[in-house]
Amino acid sequence: MSTKFFINNEDQILRDTGLRVTKQRLAIVRVLFEAEDHPDAEQVLARARERDASVSQATTYRTLAALAEKGVLQTHTFDGGVTRYEVSNRPHHDHLIDIETGDVMEFVSEEIERLQRRVAAEHGYEIVAHRLELYCRKAS
């Protein structure tokens, strides 16, 4: 699918994406690779500005688009909301989305993975990629 990228060389990530290396773009890349959540563009911008106040909205949006186009980032639009970003080099996982708070939690279930493979095989297919998003609310 896409090349896997690792944070050990932010300059190279930008070069591989065809972007000029600037301190603003480096701040954006660092924010993305350090994120433990799934930030949207405005959250990326705010966090990057904490590192470098000169980061502009235009640079943030262009950088996010370029990184996503080259496969460095995955984009998610959970339930029609705003686009959120996640670095592509993370191990496979699925998402649990709290419909009341918007919180996104990652989880891995080998049982679900086996079931998906079995269902695909029963229909004569093999899975090449998938995304699973479960929309939930806290049980009362």
From TrEMBL:
Per UniProt, the cofactor note for this protein states: Binds 1 Mn(2+) or Fe(2+) ion per subunit.
Alphabetically, the GO molecular function entries are: DNA-binding transcription factor activity; transcription cis-regulatory region binding; zinc ion binding
Q: Which GO terms describe its cellular component?
A: cytosol
Gene3D superfamilies given in the database record: 3.30.1490.190, Winged helix-like DNA-binding domain superfamily/Winged helix DNA-binding domain
Q: Which GO terms describe its biological process?
A: negative regulation of DNA-templated transcription; regulation of secondary metabolite biosynthetic process
According to its UniProt record, which cofactors does this protein need? Answer: Mn(2+); Fe(2+)
Question: Would the keyword Zinc be found if you checked this record's keyword annotation?
Answer: yes
Identify one Pfam family in the record: FUR
Enumerate the SUPFAM superfamilies for this protein: Winged helix' DNA-binding domain (SSF46785)
Residues recorded as binding Fe cation, renumbered to this chain, are 92, 94, 113, 130
Q: Mainly resides where?
A: cytoplasm
Q: Does the keyword Cytoplasm apply?
A: yes
Keywords for this entry? Cytoplasm, DNA-binding, Iron, Metal-binding, Repressor, Transcription, Transcription regulation, Zinc
Q: Which family, according to the similarity comment?
A: Belongs to the Fur family.
The entry's protein name is Ferric uptake regulation protein
